[in-house]
Amino acid sequence: MWRNTMRFAAVLCRHLPPQMNPQNLTASLKKMILESAVKFSRPARTIAWSRALCSAPKDYGVPNPSWSAEMMSLYERYSAKGAESWERLPSYKRYLTYSAGGQCLSRLHKPTARLFTRNLEEEGAGFEYTVFANKAERRAVCLFQAGPLLEGPPGHVHGGAIATIIDSATGICATYLTGFVMTANLNINYRNPIPLGSVVLVECELDRTEGRKTFVSCRITSADGSKLHAEATALFVSVSVGTLIGF
Ligand SMILES: CCCCC/C=C\C/C=C\C/C=C\C/C=C\CCCC(=O)SCCNC(=O)CCNC(=O)[C@H](O)C(C)(C)COP(=O)(O)OP(=O)(O)OC[C@H]1O[C@@H](n2cnc3c(N)ncnc32)[C@H](O)[C@@H]1OP(=O)(O)O
């Protein structure tokens, strides 16, 4: 079984086109999966293979028991804003999953890799967050509850963890509004430390686009908006999905 899996993966990797886009990825992957599964396993096993490779991904952006009452209250407030064009974006453990067919690919391309912000199994230990976006207003808001494993200064969140959540929230905002991007530049002013365990709002706004460049600004405030924790600006550059995946 293991040898078959490796041969199957090798065939897939050999046939992956150098430049893929979300439109043709599903079709190419389905074709390759079927062809290689038929080649390397008995036909009766083909369906099981496809199922094992393409099961539905887990969405980490929904409440779990570690979410505090404050996090839940914000989640419910933004969910209720649906009528005002706020949409909750799903959150997976790999960015590959955002491409059509990417769930299959993630089982084959560096299968042990995991998104930095979703790499802990223990709920509440690290980054707990969910993102809502508003297309018409070109904004996104990330509700972020910082777990104890993100400590920097005693009792407070590490500056690198704050940079990570800013990069992620602004990147999701840019991707949602303009398509696949990579961070080219990130500037942060840290204004007030974030206490571990607290819930903050990471509010992002698309300022402008120039060709392939998307400029996003960001503010992190306490949940009630009274305290400013950080301000940032980020530049994202549009890339093809092939570049993003690294093929
Ligand atoms: C399809 C929609 C799906 C909807 C999805 C819904 C929800 C979304 C959910 C999830 C989304 C998934 C992902 C979220 C995204 C991101 C989050 C994390 C992102 C990262 O964590 S990512 C890792 C860190 N990131 C890197 O590892 C990048 C390393 N880097 C490079 O890979 C290249 O450097 C690159 C690609 C950036 C550019 O390279 P390139 O060759 O493609 O383009 P080039 O260099 O020509 O630059 C083009 C124009 O940008 C200007 N420019 C470039 N860099 C600049 C800089 N630093 N400062 C000022 N201007 C700059 C140039 O001056 C030129 O400007 P001009 O056109 O005016 O001349």
From TrEMBL:
<keyword id="KW-0053">Apoptosis</keyword>
<keyword id="KW-0966">Cell projection</keyword>
<keyword id="KW-1003">Cell membrane</keyword>
<keyword id="KW-0963">Cytoplasm</keyword>
<dbReference type="InterPro" id="IPR052365">
    <property type="entry name" value="THEM4/THEM5_acyl-CoA_thioest"/>
</dbReference>
<keyword id="KW-0276">Fatty acid metabolism</keyword>
<keyword id="KW-0496">Mitochondrion</keyword>
<keyword id="KW-0378">Hydrolase</keyword>
<keyword id="KW-0999">Mitochondrion inner membrane</keyword>
<dbReference type="InterPro" id="IPR029069">
    <property type="entry name" value="HotDog_dom_sf"/>
</dbReference>
<keyword id="KW-0443">Lipid metabolism</keyword>
<dbReference type="Pfam" id="PF03061">
    <property type="entry name" value="4HBT"/>
</dbReference>
<feature type="domain" description="Thioesterase">
    <location>
        <begin position="155"/>
        <end position="227"/>
    </location>
</feature>
<keyword id="KW-0472">Membrane</keyword>
<keyword id="KW-0809">Transit peptide</keyword>
<dbReference type="InterPro" id="IPR006683">
    <property type="entry name" value="Thioestr_dom"/>
</dbReference>
<protein>
    <recommendedName>
        <fullName>Acyl-coenzyme A thioesterase THEM4</fullName>
        <ecNumber>3.1.2.2</ecNumber>
    </recommendedName>
</protein>
<comment type="similarity">
    <text>Belongs to the THEM4/THEM5 thioesterase family.</text>
</comment>
